[in-house]
């Protein structure tokens, strides 16, 4: 299960007893958990999600790398990093979760139990890096390295929290659990809030801030790209006088009118491209943020509910699995968002090309 899903794992929670009772035969249960139909369906769905996410994110990475947009566009640098993070989720989290669900018992030993959970949380914290869009993609290596180190530091408690314990069954059954680490209830609640902040709230805030920076960057680049000519002094005069002066100025520069007309069309088209780029960034930003919130909000709400309200069996196993699938589906949604905006191109943008070698870094 994931670093927090063990709280709702039906194969673990009903059978947990104290370590002292593990040696007391009177507390042993008859049979260890086995693979159920519900678990088989869950494992199958996880496998399908892993394959779909793998294909989608690989296609996204290849598409962005092939067009070299990640080296010229801050927005596509963001999408490239998101695809890498989602690819890790599909390879490690989804596939690993599917294997664990299918085997029921943990068969990886202490080392894999700790490193598996550590890696899952590290990937989760890596979203702090993935969604942090560097303002300058040329200087993003240092922030990314720092973010990776910070992610490892924040995920390190998992190396201590998770361990392999023998289940209270008459037959040999081992599971990777958090049971026995927390001595007080408030400790688990505190770490749950910490996970909520670092894996949902803070990434969401960073998402919003980064996308605001995208719009600001577009506006700055637009101001740099366009030389806004100061109004002619004649424009400050009365309308009639200004009109006469403008006619004289036009007559004086009539010989340069073809070049001026060409330059005006060029600037007008370039301005339209920046407007479309800004709107495209706005749409992608809103959809990615909305998808992130919609996918993960129910899961974290369920997690907080289980920790603080103790709802017992009010939420069924199937509903818990559905909410978990809904959260993990975020790794499948992001490639679809990129694909939708990559495949859809305005007809004007395809049929018309600007004179010269100008191209915008935001489309």
TrEMBL record:
Which is one Pfam family of this protein?
A: 7tm_1
Question: Major location, coarse class?
Answer: membrane
Start and end of every G-protein coupled receptors family 1 profile domain? 56-338
Record's subcellular location:
Cell membrane
Q: Which GO terms describe its cellular component?
A: plasma membrane
GO MF term set: G protein-coupled receptor activity; peptide binding
Record-level GO BP terms: cellular response to hormone stimulus
* UniProt xrefs under Gene3D superfamilies: Rhodopsin 7-helix transmembrane proteins (1.20.1070.10)
Under which name does UniProt file this protein?
G-protein coupled receptors family 1 profile domain-containing protein
Its ancestry begins with: Eukaryota, Metazoa, Ecdysozoa, Arthropoda, Crustacea
């Amino acid at each position: 299960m994931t670093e927090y899903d063990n709280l709702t794992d039906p194969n673990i929670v009903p059978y947990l007893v104290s370590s002292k009772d593990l040696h007391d035969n009177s507390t042993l249960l008859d049979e260890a958990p086995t693979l159920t139909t519900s678990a088989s369906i869950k494992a199958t769905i996880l496998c399908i999600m892993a394959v779909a996410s793998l294909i989608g994110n690989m296609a996204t990475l290849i598409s962005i790398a092939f067009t070299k947009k990640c080296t010229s566009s801050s927005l596509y640098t963001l999408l490239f990093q998101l695809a890498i993070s989602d690819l890790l989720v599909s390879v490690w989290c989804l596939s690993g979760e599917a294997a664990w669900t299918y085997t029921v018992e943990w068969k990886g030993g202490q080392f894999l139990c700790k490193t598996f959970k550590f890696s899952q949380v590290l990937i989760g914290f890596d979203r702090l890096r993935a969604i942090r869009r560097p303002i300058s993609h040329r200087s993003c290596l240092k922030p990314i390295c720092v973010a990776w180190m910070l992610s490892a530091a924040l995920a390190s408690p998992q190396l201590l929290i998770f361990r392999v314990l023998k289940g209270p069954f008459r037959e040999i059954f081992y599971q990777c659990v958090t049971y026995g680490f927390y001595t007080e209830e408030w400790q688990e609640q505190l770490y749950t809030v910490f996970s909520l902040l670092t894996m949902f709230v803070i990434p969401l805030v960073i998402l919003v801030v980064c996308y605001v920076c995208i719009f600001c960057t577009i506006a700055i680049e637009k101001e740099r790209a366009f030389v806004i000519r100061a109004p002619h002094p004649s424009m400050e005069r009365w309308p009639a006088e200004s009109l006469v002066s403008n006619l004289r100025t036009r007559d004086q520069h009539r010989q340069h009118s073809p070049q001026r007309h060409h330059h005006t069309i060029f600037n007008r088209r370039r301005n339209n491209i920046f407007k479309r780029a800004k709107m495209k960034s706005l749409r992608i930003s809103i959809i990615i943020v909305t998808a992130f919130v919609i996918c993960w909000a129910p899961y974290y709400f369920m997690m907080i509910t289980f920790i603080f309200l103790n709802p017992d069996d009010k939420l069924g196993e199937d509903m818990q699995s559905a909410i978990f699938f809904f959260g993990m589906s975020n790794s499948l949604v992001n490639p679809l968002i990129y694909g939708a905006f990559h495949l859809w191109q305005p007809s004007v943008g395809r049929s018309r090309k600007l004179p010269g070698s100008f191209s915008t870094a935001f489309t």
